[in-house]
Design brief:
Elements lengths: L7 E8 L4 H12 L4 E7 L4 E6 L6 H10 L3 E3 L6 E2 L3 E7 L7 H10 L3 E7 L4 E6 L6 H7 L3 E3 L1 H7 L2 H8 L4 E8 L4 H12 L4 E7 L4 E6 L6 H11 L2 E4 L4 E2 L4 H7 L19 E10 L4 H12 L4 E7 L4 E7 L5 H11 L5 E12 L11 H5 L5 E8 L4 H12 L4 E7 L4 E6 L6 H10 L3 E4 L6 E2 L14 H7 L14 E8 L4 H12 L4 E7 L4 E6 L6 H10 L3 E5 L7 E8 L4 H13 L3 E7 L4 E6 L6 H10 L3 E4 L12 H42 L3 H10 L5 E3 L2 E2 H17 L1 H12 L5 H26 L11 H23 L1 H8 L4 E7 L5 E8 L8 E4 L8 E6 L2 E4 L1 H4 L5 E3 L4 E2 L4 E2 L4 E7 L5 H14 L6 H31 L1 H7 L9 H19 L3 H20 L2 E3 L2 H7 L4 E5 H5 E12 L8 H12 ...
Parallel strand pairs: 44-51, 44-53, 51-52, 52-56, 53-54, 54-55
Antiparallel strand pairs: 1-3, 1-4, 1-5, 2-3, 6-8, 6-9, 7-8, 10-12, 10-13, 10-14, 11-12, 15-17, 15-18, 16-17, 19-21, 19-22, 19-23, 20-21, 24-26, 24-27, 25-26, 28-30, 28-31, 29-30, 32-33, 34-35, 34-36, 36-42, 37-40, 37-42, 38-39, 38-41, 43-55, 45-50, 46-47, 47-48, 48-49, 49-50, 56-57
Length: 1500
């Protein structure tokens, strides 16, 4: 290492950054400056560290460069620090002359290279690098013509290496690291630990939350490393005791940079050369994925290993390594050393070792490609059945996309296909089958010995193989980088991305890699699409590159996801030849994989590659053949969400059952009445049993049509059959499915009860007819219809309720634009034409024009134009975002003021909006349905009842045989003509059927849905939309309520709080300042500007303002402009004041002379103004401190203090200067909703913990929290971390309700046990939430929890009703109470069951009486206990970690002062609201107008 002073580093504080895109912008702009080697910007620490060349840049120039971008850059320490550089010696490897100019320009463009000196005579280059940015190996990769001069490197290597060589070995340590959330955490740890002395290498994995460290135990201990990780702010545990890598000193040297010297003679005087080789090991002893990751991580920490792929299925490891520095034997030992005695490793084969040695000098034209060129073989396949060139193209198109196929050439004349392939990935047989699957006959030619195409000398072969021999084996040279033929596409699932800057980071870094043509990353889908050259790089390596950036990456195997699928309606086809014509034309097109046209339905189904061809091109092609083609219209209305089908199905089932049930019930009631009448006769007139029977059988319904078959039984049977088999069809299917999966749900019990009742009745009837019985048997045909009616009703109601909940998602889907304006540009970006097309027809790469007020139809990048875009749809924040060339835009967001041209990057289902819809749909479907509890209960209930029923049957049979008298006494209509046995069995059966009938759990099924239905209905009437039963059930269990700040606790729009005038009023009256400021800001699109203009218009009571010219805006600083024509406003205003004064003069006695003189003088001045300076121009500056200082205005300490005070309270303070004089200070803030404090207080009084969570800074958060009485605050929380925070609270065992309004809240809303969205929020938030408050009123949060508690209470009452009938009825039905004369007939069982259902429904309807408490009720209840919190009571936690920033603890006296201040302040605020007219017009003689108001204010 040489301590050259040619590179310095400086750290500059940067204020004004708001998000990762600011970071990215600064890194991009400053990184481009001449002499800047490296820049790292940190949003958390608000600084930028820049490594630069002091000859070209100074700290001051860098600070100015950041300033010019609109940020505040402060240089705390102007003394730069020197940066260590390292010198690398490179020598030419080839016999040819390396292209020195090209090498020099390539290296100088590389970040981290500070200098290069070339000596063509000695064929060497000396490169000075910054080791923290780039290392020697990366330099060698950039210039393949040169290799590392190992000799010189040895001379340079310090004592540390020699010392370590003598050590027994390095130690590898695995640690579990908790608390990492994104890739910046991993790079922090890697940066910090990697610098420690004795740490050789470190790799931190975000996905596994672990760090693998290779270190030297004589220099540093494992404990020390753990401590250092904890210092950075993460928790670390040592997973396994450190393991010595069981390698000798030689192996260690080989694994490190320094190779062992080899004897000169053996090398045949060849210059040093690098070579890469791949070896396959067979590994026994791996059990699971963790073994795989252990081996991969252990090997990847070793240097000179370019890739490791371990397969658990094949028990193999494929390792790519540098042969000159590592041997397979060393690798074998390294694997065995990972877990002593666990893995048995044997070398399967050494596949290839590509080298840049003198022997391959003839290949120097493409040295780079050969280095990682895998083994290639060639096969010839005979193909029959090809008729034309389109067959050739389709075979080539399909086979070239197969894994492992390098190239294919098909000859129509010879009927042969020559395929070059990688034998590791495919085989001739697989290729032959693939061709046959396309409908051709294919066979392998007999002389088909696979021909090795690119081989290279193996270690056993003599190195000096003749060059031309080698050349003959090499069939096709590999093409140049831009050759599209060789490109393949892969999809990689990426996890851990949180924002747009992550996307930019991945895209930027991957594009730099050799062999990658294009990268497209979708944030919401978490997917990267990469086009690459398979000769240079493979998908697992690409995934590894993404992992190195700190994200999780997995290659998606079935890459068909990227294929576009198109459904078209084709009109004008008449016969099969039309079909053939379309199919053959389309399949000839490049980029179309598959096409199928159906004549009968007029539909075409096409699969295509969206990168090569798009839907419009396909439609044009079909139209050019003379047919009409149009898209199959997709249903954009989200009709699949409204449960219409299920509602229809259950309504039909209910009506069918009801139609047949009413007559059955009529018959049953008639029989009940008659039986009662007979019983009373029997009682009063002492009729004998025989007379009773004769009267009974003489009744009309009891008359027998055939012996044993009465009219009553026949009618019941006829009415029961349709219900049993049509009304109950669905139950039979569901019960069958449940039994198949060995579960028992309500459907099983329903089917069991109805089927047994029906079958038993039918059998009894047939037996009676067979026996020609005189007495009609008792049948249960009335049971099935009644059961089915009640159950179908319950299910129907449930689906109606579910259908209501998905309306918001349908609304979200409707946000998607339906049409897009596609434009064509010529080479100079001049617009040639534009056309309107359906949004489904937009292709990737199209240029789309979006006019002001239009929606963005797809995701894309701006290529021309400037505008502000409302992205509140996605971010939830109301501030519009500026877009210029290069910015990304999101589908569904709204363009505000400028016309933009964008290039489409994600279309169709890949757009952010589509992905959000999908996420929200998934979040909803994953939630458990309300029916669970009832189903769970009936899961136990069903077997229980069946067992009781069987027990009843058996017990009565036993009793009957032991003591027949009991049965004889209680069996109604006992007929002596029947045998004893039959009587007993019949009686026992009747009892057990009654048990089944009474125990049917349909009332259980109704208990929850009816209450939920009524509860949600009542909620909706009160402005609370509750989606289904789960949130209703869950809300009463909630223990913590988390509020978002912006738009939830506050209004979400900035409002002017205070205007302070800084000059004497006779020089510049307050109204004049307001008129000037309002006019100046009327041209600004910034939300703060809009707030100021609105305030000025209100204060001046006018709709029109003056004229503003030369308007200029500097983002992040302020505006400057010239203002004229404001005199009219002031005169109008003065007249109003005069009128008021005249009115007030009679009421208020004033010092006449004083008043008159002052008013008249001011009037004279004004009059003079209006004459002389009819259109006076004012030069206006409005902005922050930085803006004023930059324009040469001094800010005195008073003004500075009051600005600081406002900022401390979370307001934005803006300064106003007119004609280069500071004359005003305007404080703007987001105001708290009036009911917020009351809502928080009531929630606390209900025993709930209330938390505030916001992305805003801690000052603002603390200020807002103190106003509403919240004591626990999480500030500066990113949207993705909101979810983590909610999870964290849940892990503490708390049920969490989250209240939010923005899309940034929607993941947290979905994660919380109950998500509550404010109705004025974004549709996505509304969709993700479980409860939606239609009114923007926080007291509805209280009401929704209250309603939930009431509903759950009602559900519990319902369950009591549902079960009480069963608990009392089952023993009676089973005949337990027979001795005391309580006997239940089956129909009575059915009636009791019906009664339980009816009582449940009636009980639910009682919820309709719920009334929401009013604001006045709440206020009365809370009047005496409310009070604002002093700052000392509020704990603020910043970011995702739990480090709270408590305010300094105040003493008792301070607290008393604070409380008294707060109460005085509340009095003042009341007064101020009464006298607001008075205070808004300041005292004209005060020097610093507004001081008194400021003091009032500061009492807060």
């Amino acid at each position: 290492m040489d301590l050259s002073m040619s590179v310095n580093s400086v750290t500059i504080s940067v204020e004004g950054m708001t998000c990762s895109s600011c970071v990215w912008t600064i890194e991009q702009q400053i990184g481009k400056l001449n002499g800047v080697h490296h820049i790292k910007v940190s949003l958390e620490e608000k600084n930028a560290t820049i490594i630069y060349d002091p000859k070209l840049q100074t700290p001051k120039t860098l600070q100015e460069a950041i300033d010019d971008m609109g940020f505040d850059a402060i240089l705390h320490n102007p003394k730069p620090l020197p940066v260590l550089t390292e010198t690398v010696f490179l020598t030419g490897t080839a016999s040819l002359v390396p292209p020195w100019d090209h090498i020099q320009s390539t290296l100088l463009k590389t970040k981290g290279v500070t200098d290069i000196k070339i000596s063509p005579q000695q064929r060497t280059a000396v490169v000075t690098i910054i080791p923290s940015i780039v290392n020697a190996n990366q330099i060698v990769e950039l210039v393949p013509d040169l290799s590392l001069d190992t000799g010189t490197l040895e001379k340079k290597s310090g004592t540390c290496e020699d010392y370590s060589m003598a050590q027994p070995g390095e130690v590898m340590l695995k640690m579990k690291v908790e608390g990492m959330t994104c890739h910046s955490c991993t790079s922090t740890i890697e940066g910090k630990i990697g610098k420690l002395q004795g740490v050789q290498r470190i790799k931190v994995s975000l996905d596994n939350q672990e760090a693998t460290v290779v270190y030297q135990p004589h220099l540093i201990t494992a404990e020390e490393i753990k401590k250092q990780i904890e210092v950075v702010g993460f928790t670390a545990f040592i997973k396994k005791q450190p393991k010595y890598l069981k390698l000798g000193a030689i192996d260690i040297e080989r694994l490190k940079n320094t190779p062992v010297k080899s004897s000169e003679g053996s090398q045949q005087r060849s210059p040093s050369y690098t070579s890469n080789s791949t070896v396959i090991f067979t590994i026994d002893g791996m059990h699971c994925k963790s073994c795989v990751s252990n081996i991969e991580s252990a090997l990847s920490t070793l240097q000179h290993i370019s890739s490791v792929v371990v397969s658990l299925e094949n028990k193999s490891a494929i390792v790519k390594y540098n042969t000159s520095l590592v041997t397979p034997e060393t690798l074998k030992k390294a694997i065995e050393a990972i877990s002593q005695g666990q893995y048995r490793v044997s070398s399967a084969s050494e596949i290839e070792s590509t080298s840049n040695s003198p022997s391959s000098s003839s290949l120097q034209k493409s040295p780079l490609n050969i280095v990682s060129q895998p083994l290639t073989q060639e096969t010839v396949i005979n193909i029959d059945g090809m008729t034309c060139n389109s067959c050739v193209q389709s075979i080539e198109g399909v086979i070239s996309k197969k894994a492992g196929v390098k190239s294919i050439q098909v000859s129509l004349a010879n009927g042969k296909g020559t395929v070059e392939y990688d034998p590791l990935l495919t085989s001739p047989e697989t290729l032959r089958e693939a061709i046959e699957n396309m409908g051709f006959d294919a066979s392998l030619s007999d002389t088909n010995e696979p021909l090795v195409v690119i081989a290279q000398p193996s270690s056993e072969m003599p190195l000096l193989t003749s060059t031309n021999e080698f050349h003959t084996k090499m069939m096709t040279p590999i093409h140049d980088k831009e050759e599209p033929k060789t490109s393949s596409k892969c999809y990689i699932q990426v996890t851990g991305m949180t924002c747009a800057s992550c996307v930019a980071n991945i895209e930027r870094n991957l594009r730099r890699e050799e062999g990658i043509y294009s990268v497209l990353v979708a944030l919401m889908a978490g997917k990267a699409e990469v086009r690459y050259n398979p000769a240079l790089i493979q998908p697992p390596m690409i995934a590894e590159l993404i992992r190195e950036l700190g994200f999780g990456a997995i290659v998606i195997e079935n890459a068909d996801e990227g294929d576009g699928v198109l459904e078209l309606v084709v009109r004008g086809m008449t016969c099969a030849s039309c079909v053939h014509k379309i199919e053959s034309t389309l399949t000839k097109h490049r980029g179309i994989f598959y096409c199928s046209v159906a004549l009968a339905t007029n539909k075409a189904h096409i699969k295509y590659d969206p990168e090569i061809i798009g839907p419009r091109d396909i439609i044009h092609t079909i139209e050019s053949l003379g047919f009409e083609a149009s898209l199959v219209k997709k249903d954009r209305s989200a009709s699949h969400l409204d449960h219409k089908r299920e509602i229809r199905q259950w309504r039909r089932a209910f009506l069918v059952s009801l139609f047949f049930c009413i007559p059955v019930m009529g018959l049953m009631i008639y029989m009940m009445v008659v039986d009662h009448h007979l019983a009373s006769l029997h009682h009063n007139q002492n009729m004998s049993q025989e007379e009773m029977i004769s009267i009974h059988s003489s009744m009309f319904l009891e008359r027998q049509i055939l012996p044993g078959l009465s009219i009553m039984n026949l009618l019941s049977f006829l009415l029961c059959v349709p219900v049993q088999f049509f009304g109950g069809w669905h139950f039979y299917i569901q019960a069958y499915k449940a039994l198949k999966h060995k579960t028992a749900n309500m459907d099983v019990l329903i089917v069991l009860a109805t089927t047994i009742a029906f079958a038993y009745s039918l059998v009894i009837l047939l037996v009676a007819m067979y026996e020609r019985a005189k007495v009609n048997p008792v049948t249960f045909f009335d049971t099935p219809p009644m059961l089915f009616v009640f159950i179908a009703l319950g299910r129907w109601l449930e689906h109606v309720a579910k259908g209501k909940t998905s309306e918001a998602l349908a609304k979200l889907i409707s946000l998607q634009a339906t049409e897009a304006t596609i434009v064509t540009l010529d080479s100079d970006n001049i617009l040639l034409s534009e056309e309107q097309v359906d949004v489904e027809l937009v292709q990737r790469g199209d240029i789309i024009k979006v006019v002001p007020g239009g929606k963005f139809p797809v995701d894309g990048r701006v290529i021309e134009g400037h505008s502000m875009v409302d992205e509140s749809l996605i971010t939830g924040e109301a501030m519009p975002v500026a877009k210029k060339s290069g910015s990304t835009v999101i589908a569904g967001s709204i363009n505000q003021n400028g016309s933009l041209l964008i290039r489409a990057t994600h279309v169709g289902a890949d757009t952010t909006l589509s992905q959000i819809v999908k996420l929200v749909e998934e979040a909803q479907t994953s939630k458990a349905p309300i029916q669970q509890f009832a189903d769970k209960l009936s899961g136990y209930f069903v077997p229980f009842i069946v067992i009781i029923s069987i027990a009843t049957l058996l017990v009565w049979i036993i009793i009957g045989f032991l003591n027949f008298e009991i049965v004889e006494t209680y069996f109604p209509g006992y007929n002596r003509s029947i045998s004893r046995t039959e009587t007993i069995i019949r009686f026992a059966f009747q009892a057990s059927i009654t048990v089944l009938c009474i125990a049917c759990p349909c009332s259980l099924g109704l208990a929850t849905p009816t209450a939920v239905m009524v509860g949600t209905g009542v909620g909706a009437q009160n402005g609370i939309l509750i989606k289904g039963g789960e949130p209703l059930e869950m809300a009463h269990k909630v223990k913590v309520v988390v509020f978002d700040k912006t738009g939830t606790i506050t209004h979400g729009t900035p409002v002017v709080n205070q205007v302070k005038v800084l000059v004497e009023s006779n020089r510049m009256p307050r109204n004049k300042i307001l008129a000037i400021v309002g006019t100046a800001e009327s041209n600004s699109e910034h939300p703060l500007g809009a707030a100021i203009t609105k305030y000025c218009k209100q204060e001046l009571d006018t709709e029109t303002l003056g004229t503003c010219i030369d308007f200029q805006v500097v983002p992040g600083c302020g505006i400057n402009c010239k203002v004229t024509n404001i005199e009219g406003l002031l005169h109008k205003n003065n007249w109003k004041i005069e009128e008021n004064n005249i009115k007030n003069a009679s009421l208020v006695q004033i010092d006449e002379s004083n008043e008159q003189s002052s008013t008249s003088s001011s009037m004279i001045i004004d009059a003079q103004f209006s004459n002389t300076l009819n259109a006076q121009q004012y030069k206006v500056l409005i902005g922050n401190r930085e803006w004023m200082i930059r324009n040469g205005l001094a800010i005195n300490s008073n003004v500075n203090d009051s600005m600081t005070e406002h900022e401390r309270r979370g307001r934005t303070a803006v300064l106003v200067a007119v004609d280069d004089e500071l004359c005003g200070l305007i404080a703007i803030a987001d105001t708290v909703k009036p009911e917020a404090e009351l809502a928080v207080h009531i929630l606390k009084s209900m025993g709930l913990e209330v938390v505030l969570m916001t992305g805003d800074n801690s000052k603002t958060a603390r200020s807002i929290a103190s106003q509403v009485g919240i004591t626990k605050v999480f500030a500066e929380v990113l949207p993705s971390h909101k979810v983590a925070k909610v999870k964290q609270l849940q892990e503490e065992g708390k049920r969490v309700a989250m209240v939010g309004d923005g899309i940034n809240d929607s993941p947290a809303l979905a994660m919380a046990n109950v998500g509550i969205a404010i109705g004025t929020g974004t549709d996505v938030a509304i969709e993700a939430a479980d409860v939606v408050l239609i009114r923007n009123d926080l007291l509805d949060v209280v009401a929704s929890i209250d309603l939930s508690r009431k509903t759950v209470k009602r559900i519990r009452i319902n369950f009591v009703f549902a079960l009480i009938y069963n608990l009392i009825g089952i023993p009676i039905a089973a005949g337990v109470f027979m001795p005391i004369g309580l006997v239940l007939q089956p129909w009575m069982g059915s009636a009791a069951m019906a009664a339980s259902s009816v009582s449940v429904v009636l009980s639910s309807l009682f919820l309709k009486l719920y009334r929401k408490p009013t604001y006045e009720n709440y206020e009365l209840h809370a009047r005496n206990q409310m009070g604002q919190k002093s700052p000392s009571e509020i704990s603020v936690h910043v970011g995702i970690d739990d480090t709270s920033r408590n305010s300094p603890k105040l003493g008792l006296l301070d607290r008393i002062v604070n409380y008294s201040r707060a109460s005085i302040n509340s009095l003042l605020s009341d007064k101020r609201s009464l006298n607001s007219v008075g205070t808004s017009e300041p005292d004209k003689h005060s020097l610093l107008v507004g001081d008194c108001r400021e003091d009032d204010d500061s009492a807060l």
